[in-house]
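Re: the 419-residue chain
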Amino acid sequence: MKKIIYTLMFLAFVSMANAQWSEQTSGLTTTLYSVSAVDNDVVWICGAGGKVLRTINGGTNWNLTVSPNSSLDLYNIWGVDANIAYVTGSSSTTYVYRTANGGGSWTQIFSQVGGFINAIHGVSLNEPEQMIMYGDPVGGRWSIWINNPGGWDSTGFYLPQTGTETGYNNAMFAIRGPQSNTKIWFGTNNTRIYKWTLSTGWISQPTPGQVNSLAIVFPEEMIGFGGGSTGLLHTSNGGSIWSDLPGIPGSGSINGLAYGNSIGELFLSRGTSIYRTTSFGVNWAVETTQTGTYTHLQKARTGYNLWAIRNNGGISKYTAPIGIKSISSEVPQSFSLSQNYPNPFNPKTIINFQLPMSNFVKLIVYDMMGREVTTLVNEKLNPGTYEVDWNAINYPSGVYFYKLQTESFSETKKMVLVK
């Protein structure tokens, strides 16, 4: 009888944990161009007419901040945390603004005549405010800068323009880490993607089958995807070879890509719909269809949820099952935390734990200095055995510790990330 009761509880938990899409209220009807999700709570959005939106509760409430410049359309944003964000806007001159008080005020920190800024992106885990931005070429060279302590600097990032090529809004992706491990990709309208590493500098990567590359994402260091005007690009070797994936649903440009929480899971926005695969693009399903065209899609950098924005002020949120899989409803005899596997790992690993009774559970990852890196679980769970995935693609190589803590049990184990 006890087993039957816990089985019913387990089924109820699975039902509650199912991922779902929901619509959130922005209060705007104008185009939203870029979204930056810091974690499951803090998200920033920018759009037409100098509008910036911020939430600190996962989108339950969206607040319009003070405008950096109401005469500009704002095309790209990067949120550092709940207080600090960078946003770019362009007319005949391109600008970058920074806030340190949650959007209460903004300071202009960069300007240039021409050179539309396509993306601004954090590139360092150790220095959260180290940004790289790329913009359309000016004077025969791409507009690429990194903000070092002395100001915005293009040293080491020189890249000449080929022909009349330009870039696309939000078409940049970076695997962050110490500079020696950082990898950066950005898209163009010239049948190529550019990639940067410290050892190679900029390398041109051909994209046969797709002239335009409007979105880029790398779920793993070698496995990447690029959104084109007519299809989806795929690479399994870091971009050395890109090829078209067949059988992509929908029509029109793919201008939003985000990886999910499990191996093989990928989301793309195309037209009025968002699609999802759990097989790295072999099979797809429609996730949600709304009025208005999707313009950008992003997963929380240190979380499990996703946000997608549209050209009519619409905001869609994907609430993920926080990376937890209940793999058995049998009631264990005791608490336990298993060694992660594989270990060492790169970049994904799996952690299992058991609960003999209903408990509030925290599973937290720490670095060697004892600093909290990310929270994998933070909720009340029923008795059973659970499996949690951690994707450490944005973290540097090294030794990490993961700690399981309940109301009456605590255990810590070591794991090694090798890149």
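The longest strand covers residues 372-381.
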